[in-house]
Design brief:
The protein is elongated. The chain is mostly helical. The two termini are 13 Å apart.
Length: 43
């Protein structure tokens, strides 16, 4: 996996992270969830 943003090695998980994990514990309305899913290709 390429480290384009120069994050510390300890932050790299080298696997797909479900988009839902980014807003699972926040108060996000349905419109924002849909927008995030549509605008972000992959995490």
């Amino acid at each position: 996996m390429e480290n384009l943003l120069s994050y510390p090695q300890s932050t790299i998980v080298d696997k797909v992270v479900p988009k839902t994990m980014f807003y699972k514990f926040m108060e996000v309305n349905q419109r924002m969830k849909v927008r995030f899913v549509n605008d972000v290709a992959a995490v």
